[in-house]
Amino acid sequence: KKARSASVGNASPAVYIGQQGNGEVVENPIKGAECNEVFVEGFPDNYDDMCPAPVTLEKLQDTSVEFDKLVYQDKSAKASRLKLESKFVDFFFPNDHPTHYKLPVGDLARGKAQSPQRLVWKSLSEVFPNAEFIHDNKPRPEDVVQGKLGDCWFLGALATLANSPVHFESVFPKPWPSPNAMNPADPKYEFSIFRFRFWKWGKWIEIVVDDRLPFLAHANGTLLNPPQLAFASCKHYSRDFWVPLVEKAYAKLHGSYAALEAGSSADAMIDLTGGIVETIDIKCMGSSTKELPKVLKGDQEWDYSVLWTRLKKAQRRGFLVSCSNKSEYDPDRRYNNILANANGIITSHSYSISRVLTVRVRNKKGMNIFHKDSYHLVAVRNPWGEHAWNGAWSEYSKEWKSLSKSKKQKLGLTLAESGTFWIAIEDFIKHFTHVNICRTVNITFLSLHHQWTRHHFFDSWKVPGLAGGCINHSTWYKNPQYRLRVSKESMVIISLQQKEIRLFGSHCGYEDLSIGFLLLHIETNRKTRVHVPMDCVETKTKFRNSRQISFAEVLEEGTYMIIPCTFTPNCEGEFLLQVYTFCSSSCKKMIRDVPKKKIFHSRVKNALSITVHNAYLSKMKGIHTSLTPYVRVTVEGTEHKTNCRTKTNPRFNEGLLFYPKHPKTAVVKFEVYHSGVLLDTQLGHCSIPVSSIANKQPGVRYTVKSFLYAKDPLESQVEGSIEFSIYFHSQPELL
Question: Any idea where the Calpain catalytic domain is (predicted)?
Fold first, then answer.
């Protein structure tokens, strides 16, 4: 294949590996061809021509092969690591491709307009002979400092990762480079190969990079004094370099540094942990989840106990937590000034939350000297390393000064970390709008903790037939459907992810779909797709054009249908559905609209859906409190029963599905039994003809409350009753 040369600005011609705008792949026949100096003036006019050809969705069909090609995994370099005789140079992410290092146009990440600067790519061993990967093998959140790239969303998540050794080692696999391993003169020199891992599309992807990084330089090409990295760096920039190296690997994963401009910290948390991120909208928390008695409106105070409890639980379980003010993702953000408010909080900016605690301070105004006031504090960090909160409990506030030095040391309170500040939870909910909590679910068999059951599906919305949109449209059921069976009352976590547009490049023309899913409580014995809305546990999630939508609630024992969908019909896209249950469960994709035809049986022509809601047994004669009732339902000899309950007035809310052949003569019989040790005892029964429902308006669910009668017809018993609903349709493919 023919190699081509490219030049940008004042850059000398160089050969690079990549994909030209015409789709032609070029290779570098001359190993060692390098271009050290590039004059950067933001996005050039011919940016689209210089970018690689847009990646199509078809290229990602095979996640085990094509995805590896997309992220440029240098497997040959890893395999021959011990055979290298010279310094490793990453030709799959060279420093002379203009789309790999571009600075954003106009205002930079710090909100200050900058004049065009010269970038000089240098090896770390050339600039810092004593450079270390991680000093003392102890990564610290305060090491993370943002540079001239608007990737605070990634760096904020990276700072929280430093507090979790388990998560950190997932991204930074051991063994780590030893001290002085970057110095060629040292016997421990390891050829400057650094590997990192990121979670993409259901699996860990390993990325290999070299130690060449972009430095800022004067117009004559000489480095600044002291040397300054153009993008992210460590606080001790002349010592640690794990932050800029992992940023380079993350940029390589997405094709360029420019691809990291603006984003959501929730996406970064997913990539760094493989976990499930729950985004909490603080301003809507009271009205949407009904967890808070008041909704925050203006300066109105509200009950913060629920959010505080969530933050404490996240800290106790080692979850990553971040927060932001207003929208985290703004396409126009890189063209606007990003300035701090009067209170020091940056708008449209991601922060990391490292700690929460309660401080008790003696109230000097009261007469009771033993009375102490409690304050709930949140430790927040700005990845810039500056611009901190200046209100209550800030560094120079009276609240902070009221604590003695010994008290601060005892509680571990410190403001020595650059960019870290403490803020009371009351002020936190006023000045921040979103909180992201990333939970990782333990599914290992040898775990000492409770084990979760995981189900996952790679699927897509396709036109026609499998892209029906949300429940607001009549075609809502024309989406992929998954039946979930939960063996007992349990916590259930559902995560829906779509293919990340950032992997295709900002120039590809794709946009994130507005996604969500329905969760329906369906019949226990259903083996077909749903076409009519049943009793909804959650009618629908909030639809957002984000990478992931999650749901976490305690569900009762039963059968449910998960229906991932887009807000608008006829939108095609791929998705990953993950379901976690805290008990034994099963999950299966539903394909058929009607039951499979059995041998020597005619085709199903009618469908009858029955939902048993409640039974009232406390007033029945001879009934005692230790009752374990269940309901047996029979139609034309076909019998199904509900699960047992442990109350005299049990709430079942279980559905059963029947296919009567002769609806005009069929009768639905309900029998309530007590589950005994050796023998079940019938408590009462009732019946209703199917024709009484079939002759009414079709497609309508009718709720009935009927008295229960004793087994002996001569001994009528009317104290007990049962409540149920019936839905009949002569076209089973529509039920």
Answer: 87-441
Contact 711, 669 (CB under 8 A): no
Across the strands, what pairs with 105?
A: none
Of the candidates 152, 234, 565, 587, the residue annotated as catalytic is 152
**Domain spans of the chain?**
34-259, 276-439, 453-590, 607-734
Catalytic annotation present for 180? no
**Catalytically annotated residue among 254, 349, 387, 685:** 349
SS3 letters for 422-451? EEEHHHHHHHCCEEEEEECCCCCCCCCCCC
Give yes or no: 376 in active site: no
* Distances from the Cα of 267 to the Cα of 164, 264, 550, 627, angstroms: 18, 5, 13, 50
Q: Give residue 419's identity as a one-letter amino acid code.
A: G
Residue 349 designated active-site = yes
CATH of the domain spanning 276-439: 3.90.70.10
Q: Return the pLDDT at 631.
A: 93
What is the rounded CA–CA span in Å between residue 139 and residue 162?
A: 6
Which CATH class, in words, describes the domain spanning 453-590? Answer: mainly beta
* Torsions phi, psi for 389 (to 5 deg): -60, 135
Q: Which two tokens stand for residue 283?
A: 């301003």
In one-letter notation, the amino acid at residue 710 is A
The pLDDT, as a whole number, for residue 116 is 45
42-70 residue pLDDT tens: 333 333 333 333 333 333 333 333 334 43
579 has a pLDDT exceeding 80? yes
Question: What pLDDT is attached to residue 132?
Answer: 79
Cα distances from 95 to residues 70, 98, 108, 260, in angstroms, run 18, 8, 21, 16
CB atoms within 10 A of CB 261: 20
The pLDDT value recorded for residue 105 is 38
Residue type for 432, please?
F
| Phi–psi pair at 74, nearest 5 degrees | -90, 75
Among residues 144, 35, 104, 98, the alpha carbon closest in space to that of 255 is found at: 98
Nearest partner of 207 among 86, 78, 99, judged by Cα: 78
CA atoms within 13 A on the CB side of 371: 7
| CATH fit for domain 607-734, picks 3.40.50.150, 2.60.40.150, 1.10.10.350, 3.50.50.60 | 2.60.40.150
Could you give the C-alpha distances from 2 to 26, 263, 693, in angstroms and in order?
A: 6, 37, 76
- C-alpha separations of 148 from 8, 155, 424 in Å: 20, 12, 31
User: Which of the following is catalytic: 95, 382, 479, 606?
Assistant: 382
Q: For the chain, what is the largest distance between any 2 Cα atoms, rounded to a whole number of angstroms?
A: 108
